[in-house]
Design goal:
The chain is an alpha/beta fold and 208 residues long. It is built from eight helices and eleven strands. It is elongated, with a radius of gyration of 19 Å. The structure holds phosphoribosyl ATP and magnesium ion. The site of phosphoribosyl ATP has 22 residues, from helix 1, helix 3, strand 9 and helix 6.
């Protein structure tokens, strides 16, 4: 049995076509049922539906053999303990700093609100900027508007969320896409099955 950890939402939606090309179709729709384990059209493959930030944890501990997670989540988790053999080029976006559109460029020590504490710390350190990082779990955009922080570090896709809150993107930290990750022991123990799946994904991606 191969267990693949996927998060609900955009990653799940963009993963479905990849799975379909590999002959894997979930029996249930996670939007319509509350099942956390989804059987698929293949007897030897099941999906577990979890929070995006939990995917590296499930794969690291071998509770899932494979997982699909954003590079943002993998970097923040510290994913040395996982193999990351494939960039799936899905759920693409940019990790950026953003500030109020009228805010001048900040000098000296700054306050940064983000859920990406580790990434933000190393980014500002690499630029020689002293930053106090304030960890938030959501609605980062609010922080500069209410004086909690000078800027935020968050994912940007269309830019509409920033714009709706009078913020603007400032600096690109990195381009983000989702990656296939594999548990290290599973890569050895279930090598044939995992290698077959990897090559099916690779073929599909090469056609795009
Ligand atoms: O939302 P929830 O708390 O349930 O979990 P999550 O946010 O971790 O999951 P989800 O499904 O929202 O995101 C999973 C992964 O999708 C992320 O880890 C990224 O790798 C990837 N991804 C791609 C995005 C976006 N694009 C994206 N635009 N994740 C989040 N966003 C959010 C962003 O945080 C901001 O709030 O969308 C908003 C910006 O979008 P625009 O289009 O307005 O710029
Ligand atoms: Mg989200």
């Amino acid at each position: 049995m191969l267990t693949i950890a996927v998060s609900k939402g955009r990653i799940y939606e963009e993963t479905l076509p990849l799975l379909a090309e590999a002959g894997i179709t979930p029996i249930d729709d996670p939007k319509k049922c509350r099942k956390l384990i989804l059987q698929t059209s293949r007897d030897d493959v099941q999906l577990v539906i979890i929070r995006a930030t939990d995917v590296p944890t499930f794969v690291e501990y071998g509770a899932a053999d494979l997982g699909i997670a954003g590079k943002d989540v993998l970097l923040e988790h510290g994913a040395d303990s996982l193999y990351e053999p494939l960039d799936l080029n899905i759920a693409c976006c940019r990790l950026m700093t953003a500030a109020h559109k009228d805010a001048p460029e900040q000098r000296g020590r700054i306050r940064v609100a983000t859920k990406y504490v580790k990434i933000a710390q190393s980014y500002f350190a690499s630029k020689g900027i002293q930053a106090e990082i304030i960890k938030l779990y959501g609605s980062m955009e609010l922080a500069p508007l209410v004086g909690l922080a000078d800027c935020i570090v968050d994912l940007v896709d269309t830019g509409n969320t920033l714009k709706a809150n009078d913020l603007e993107p400032r600096e690109l930290i990195m381009n983000i896409s989702s990656r296939l990750v594999v548990n290290k022991a599973a890569m050895k123990m279930k090598h044939a099955a995992i290698a077959a799946l990897l090559s099916q994904f690779e073929q599909t991606l090469a056609k795009r």
